[in-house]
Each structure stands twice: as C-alpha cells, then as structure tokens.
Amino acid sequence: MKTKQTNLFFSIGIILFLAYVSFGFTISTEKSDSKENKSFPMFGNWKNFTKADGLPGNKTYAVRVDGDRVLVGTHEGLAVFEDGKWTTYTTSDGLAHDGVIAIDISELTGDVWLGTMGGLTRWSGGRFESFTQMNSGMPNDLVYSVACDGKDVWMATGGGAGKLDTYTKEWEIFTEENAPMHEPWTYSVCSGDEKIFIAAWGGGIIEYNKKTKHFRDYTDPDGNMEIDLFPDDGVVHDITTGTSFANGNLWVATYFGLSRYDGVHWKGYFDHDSGLASNFINFIKADGDYAFICTDQGLTVTDGDTWVSYYKNEKNANGRAVLLQDGKKQEKVLSPSISHNFILGVDVKDDVIWVATSYGLSRGELIK
Asked: Is pLDDT of 274 > 50?
C-alpha cells in the first residue's frame, strides 16, 4: 500500500544523530514536515513491580497515568501507585469485579472509568459506582475497553459496543442488528477526528461518525483468514483486537499483524518484514507520531519507519532491546528488562513509560 505523502520543506533533510550511551544505539529520524528533527524515543532504567512490591497480584491487564498517580488494572483489583505506595481497591470497595481490564479518565470531570470482567465502574469523588446489565443499559458485563469522549463514555464488550451519555444518563447499544458488525463481540474502542472507532471480532474496524451518526466498516478486502493476500489493501485481518488514533493516524492491532490508516491509505506491518515483536497483538496505544504495541512476545515502539522492541530473557531478569532502522538491526542487552514478554497494556506520560504484563508491571525512563 502507498503511504500518505507530505510536502517536503527541504530538498535535503537534516539528519539528527543521537548517541544513546545506555543502549549503544545511534538513531536518526528525519521529519520532512518540520524544521526540527525529532529523536526516536528509547527507554531504559527499567524497574519492575510484582506482588512482592505491593501489587495485589502479578497479572496486570491495564495501566493509566493520572497526574501524580498510576492506575493499574489487575486480576485482583485496582492498584493505585501514589507517593511511593500501593493502594488496592476491590469489590468490597465498590468495584463491579476485581478483574480490571480497561481504564480511561474523563478530561471533563477527572472521573476514572474502569472496564471489568463483571461490569463498568466509575470512580468519582472517592466513591465507586458500578453499572451492569442488571441495573443499567450495559450491552454486556464483560468490558474489554473504555473510552471517554466528552460527556460520553464508550465501551467495547462481549455483547456489543455501548455508549453512556453521562448528562442524560441514556444508553445506546450497537450490535450486528444496527451496525455493520458480523457479530456483537467487540474488543476495543477509541475516539479521534470526530469519530468513534470500534475493533470488532471478525468485523474489522467499525467507524461511527458523531456528526452524521452513520456507520461504515473497514475490513480485509481479500477476506482471507490465513494470510494477507494483497498487501496494503486495507486492514490486514478482520479479527481486530485494538485500535488507537493520534496525529491523523488510526492504528489497528490484530492477532495477525498491524495496520495503519492515514484517512486515505492503509499500510500493513508484520513481524517478518518490520521490527514488530510479534503478529499477535493484545493492545495498542498511539501517542503523537508513535505507536506502542503490546504483543505476546514483547513490547514494540514504532513510527512506521523505525522500530524498537523490548524483550525479556526466559531464564533471568535481563533482556534486550532490538532496533531496526533503514534495514539495519542493532541489539543491546538490558539489565534488568521488562517484567514479562506477554504484554497487555501500556501508557506513556512525559519521560516515563508504564507496561502491564502477565507477570508484573514495568516502569521505564526515556533515555535522553
């Protein structure tokens, strides 16, 4: 597929070389639409947290930075890291379920919205309020993803996508009956460009235009469930597991590779032709020009051209970071590394990255 072309401000771009002593990597990035080049983010000085350090359990599903505190969804409740200490909240405090899978924060109110294995929970003013199929218009109690969009809260569930208008308290449910889905199983939801994007199991990406209130879908045009027959013709696979929008780009995660859509053209990426750690992607977070990709074999950061993947060794706490740029690969030993290679969530704030894994939480620092 062709990528979207931008006007060149210079006939010859300025290449900025930054030597990262801690990694031993030299990375150059050239921005054709900017007078200043932007260095590719590299992370190191990893610190890991497990149950022994204060987490309620080692299995972590999601992480979000909220000001001076870090919110972590675990299998045993919501863990909050603040002032160097961990505090845990469970169903005894008002959570719908101890298994917290998704976290988002309302920019309007500061309320924290939690998607759990047993309903949706709002944390506001120090108290928890939970919504289930029994007491609200929830489409399903298994909530995989939550996205706050102004006064609306969207959720992807095992029984369709849902929307709660927090002003009117009205609910809407979207399934195969009123949206272009093959079945009601939805995995992820995000907002961007006055649209809502829903990752639907077996249905690709469902786009909802907030102005027209109309849907359209993006599916794999070749319809092949095994391989991507025609590169860059659309989303690489109809089984989508995550989606995130930033800087005019929609990033789409699947269990069979990665896609990027700039509003005109699609581009597909796979572990055999890029620096992607694995085609099996659990979650994706777009931030500025970069996508942070959580796979079953490591964490990958990319802008679509340069790739860095972080891996943990199987037998010790160390690992490696692998850089792929301009077809050249460099590798650096990490000591320690990320907590585990099966990664389920990520968030980035300023110079710090937090990574939720199936065995512990990891914190990394930007290497300048």
From this structure: yes
Q: How far is CA 306 from CA 42, 109, 324, in A?
A: 11, 37, 6
Gap between the Cα atoms of 5 and 25, Å rounded: 29
Under a CB-based contact definition with an 8 Å cutoff, are residues 98 and 121 in contact?
no
Q: What is the DSSP letter of 317?
A: S
Arch. (CATH architecture) of 47-366: 7 Propeller (2.130)
| Length of the chain, in residues | 368
More confident site: 88 or 6: 88
Confidence of residue 38 (pLDDT cuts 50, 70, 90): low
Burial tier of 6 (Cβ tally within 10 Å: 0-12, 13-18, 19+): exposed
Picking from 146, 159, 239, 257, the residue whose alpha carbon sits closest to that of residue 199 is 239
Quick check: 26 pLDDT over 80? no
Could you tell me the residue ranges of all domains in the chain?
47-366
Out of 6-20, 153-167, 221-235, least confident range: 6-20
For residue 294 the two structure tokens come to 């959580």
CB-CB neighbours of 181 under 10 Å: 23
> Is residue 2's pLDDT more than 80?
no
- Res. 223 pLDDT band, cuts 50 70 90: low
Residue 328: other Cβ atoms inside 10 A: 7
Cα-to-chain-centroid distance, residue 88: 23
Other Cβ atoms within 10 Å of 54 Cβ, number: 14
